[in-house]
């Protein structure tokens, strides 16, 4: 998800509450692995329409989640007041990927096409992805000129289902039956 009005900023996580009494917060990180959340150098915090810069000065994995210390937040009440705050990072800070690998945000908005009986059909547009454990799933929403008004779920299986991703053309070609 990109920040409204700023396509360069990506949602990296959400503060879910306080941890302890010294101003630490619990963070639901959207990064994989979770610990990579702390590797970014610049964060923007957004809460109730207000945005400000933030600096995480420490952090570590705690169970399945992450706990972190924000500069200037020194007690439990201040940490708890941040509950629900979204943490955004610049897309330019993401590490480069190998050829043929993509970040989820790069796939969102791509038109998904299949070839069926010699005709190219527009199945929809990638709205978001779901992590299932076995493989990620593309959630397609109907868009202008798509073949119908159905939402579709397609496994994100490069080489099998996903045949080609063309980011510059905002297009993905898939091997998929249009009725599935």
Describe the structure.
This protein is mainly β. It has two domains: 2-93, Elongation Factor Tu (Ef-tu), domain 3; 104-174, SH3 type barrels (Roll), CATH 2.30.30.240. The protein is built from two helices and 14 strands; from the N terminus they run E-E-E-E-E-E-E-H-E-H-E-E-E-E-E-E. The strands form two sheets. Strands 1, 2, 3, 4, 5, 6, 7 and 8 form an eight-stranded antiparallel β-sheet that branches. A six-stranded mixed β-sheet has the order 12-11-10-9-14-13. The radius of gyration is 19 Å and the shape is elongated.
List the helices and strands and how they pair.
Layout: E1 2-3, E2 6-19, E3 24-29, E4 43-47, E5 50-54, E6 56-62, E7 65-70, H1 76-80, E8 86-90, H2 104-107, E9 111-116, E10 119-131, E11 136-141, E12 152-155, E13 162-166, E14 171-174
Parallel strand pairs: 9-14
Antiparallel strand pairs: 1-2, 2-3, 2-8, 3-7, 4-5, 4-8, 6-7, 9-10, 10-11, 11-12, 13-14
- Report the helical percentage: under 10%
Q: Distance between the terminal alpha carbons, to the nearest Å?
A: 27 Å
What's the CATH H-level homologous superfamily of the largest domain?
RimM
**Unreliable runs:** none
- Biggest sheet statistics: 8 strands, antiparallel
Number of strands: 14
Radius of gyration: 19 Å
Give me the number of helical elements: 2
Share of residues in strands: over 45%
Please state the second-level CATH architecture of the largest domain.
Beta Barrel
Number of domains: 2
Class by alpha and beta content: mainly beta
| Shape descriptor | elongated
Helices and strands, in order, run as: EEEEEEEHEHEEEEEE
CATH topology (level 3) name of the largest domain: Elongation Factor Tu (Ef-tu), domain 3
Mean pLDDT: 90
Main CATH class of the largest domain: Mainly Beta
């Amino acid at each position: 998800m990109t920040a409204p009005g700023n396509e360069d900023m990506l949602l990296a996580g959400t503060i879910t509450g306080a941890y302890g009494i010294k101003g630490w917060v619990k963070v639901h990180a959207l990064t994989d692995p979770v610990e990579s959340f702390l590797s970014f150098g610049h964060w923007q915090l957004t809460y109730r329409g207000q945005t400000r810069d933030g600096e995480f000065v420490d952090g570590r994995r705690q169970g399945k989640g992450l706990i972190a210390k924000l500069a200037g937040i020194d007690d439990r009440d201040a940490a708890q007041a941040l509950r629900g705050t979204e943490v955004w990072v610049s897309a330019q800070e993401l590490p480069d990927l190998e050829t043929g690998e993509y970040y989820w945000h790069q796939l969102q908005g791509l038109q998904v096409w299949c070839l069926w009986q010699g005709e190219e059909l527009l199945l929809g547009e990638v709205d978001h992805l779901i992590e299932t454990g076995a493989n990620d799933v593309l959630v397609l929403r109907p868009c202008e000129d798509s073949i119908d008004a159905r939402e579709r779920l397609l496994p994100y299986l490069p080489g099998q289902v996903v045949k080609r991703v063309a980011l510059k053309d905002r297009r993905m070609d898939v091997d998929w039956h249009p009725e599935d």
